[in-house]
TrEMBL record:
PROSITE patterns according to UniProt: FAS1
Annotated region described as Disordered, given as residue ranges: 322-343
All copies of domain FAS1, residue ranges: 1-133, 137-269
Entries under SUPFAM superfamilies matching the protein: FAS1 domain
Keyword tags: Signal
GO CC annotations, alphabetized: fungal-type vacuole membrane
Signal peptide positions (record): 1-24
Keyword Nuclease: no
Alphabetized InterPro entries for the sequence: Adhesion/Biosynth-related, FAS1_dom_sf, FAS1_domain
Keyword Signal: yes
Protein name per the record: FAS1 domain-containing protein
Gene3D superfamilies: FAS1 domain
Organism: Corynascus novoguineensis
GO terms classed as biological process: macroautophagy
Amino acid sequence: MGLRLRAAVVALISTTLLSPTVQAVDLGSVLADQANLTTFRGLVKNMVESILKYHILKKAIDMPSIVKGDSIWAPTMLADRNFSTVTGGQHLILTKQPGGEVVLTSGFATRGTVVTEDLAFDDGLVQVIDSVMRVPETLDATARGAYTDLTAFVGALYAAGLYDEVAGWKDVTIFAPRNAAFQQLAGTFSRMDEADLRRVLRYHVVPGRVSHVWELRNASTLATADGSGDGTEVAVTRHTNFIYVNSAEIVQADVLIANGVIHLVDNVLNPRRPDARPDVELTTAQPPVFTPLGTATATGSDVPTPFATHLPCTGTLEENCQATSSQATGGPTGTSGGAASSNAGGALPRCTGLTGAGVGIGLAVGAVMAGL
Ligand SMILES: *[C@@H]1O[C@H](CO)[C@@H](O)[C@H](O)[C@H]1NC(C)=O
Ligand SMILES: *[C@@H]1O[C@H](CO)[C@@H](O)[C@H](O)[C@H]1NC(C)=O
Ligand SMILES: *[C@@H]1O[C@H](CO)[C@@H](O)[C@H](O)[C@H]1NC(C)=O
């Protein structure tokens, strides 16, 4: 099945847009001839296969059927546990803009726009897109490589010994406070014991459920991983275009990761204040729901970020990370521009996770198809 899919995808892309010489198979046979490269070949094979599977939707979706302003969660054929721990297969988000164009969201802040819609073939539809979609990665890799505003939260998970637990869950929704939210409470967190920190962090994670932003209904509640006290649920408030979790505003929605979705929020949630609700009339940011301790701290990229040093990447490892990063950015074949997208292949070190490092295997444009 893997082979048949691969052949079909490559053929379809070549006949529609690429020169017919683009063949993933050649890469495989070249590597197979190099005895010392067999491990690498295995990795590349797995990666190529997973990237292609991520471009094949389980069900055909014709673009005119999507309502303007709506988003759809589209499961793909990528269901290997190594790359996805989301029930039903890792997914893409399809959003129809008010202007009518359809934008796809994938991992690592990578987006693409459908440039040719609904090319029909025997078993489905091909949507030609202007960049290659990126398989969502772990929380750690996503924080380092694409959303550096997550480093305090992810560092805090490591500091509390919770990272493996949270990254290991299948299907999660995470409300992750951005770095500035931790910075303004630096004094409070430096005085917090580990048990409290664990409780606070667990209160940001909804296990067993992937809730995209459009599924967060006003006045609904979500059960968090903190089952230890009064604050076991968080509440959603919608007001005009704003969406809040307790009183924290969602400032960046639907960041896809290997095991679910992250929404970045502008305040740390407090399990002792489950009743916190936003003052929707406020024109400035909602105030913190913790008592700030110590001297007031500033926020911003020049200010030390609490917990960021707990990301497991130090000394010599750091150099290795740089190497990985430049490989990923440069790409083995120097793709011709099309694959460029906002933050993908960002300049920051990536220390762990090989998944996705091979984006740009020679595809300058992508296609999403369905129906095989
Ligand atoms: C493979 O690697 C080993 C050492 O790691 C080296 O001695 C050998 O010459 C290499 N073989 C080839 C064909 O490059
Ligand atoms: C998953 O990872 C394991 C160990 O890293 C590897 O042996 C296996 O082939 C991988 N499976 C897929 C489908 O990538
Ligand atoms: C949202 O829910 C709150 C109660 O939590 C209610 O006061 C408010 O009117 C609702 N807003 C909308 C737009 O329905």
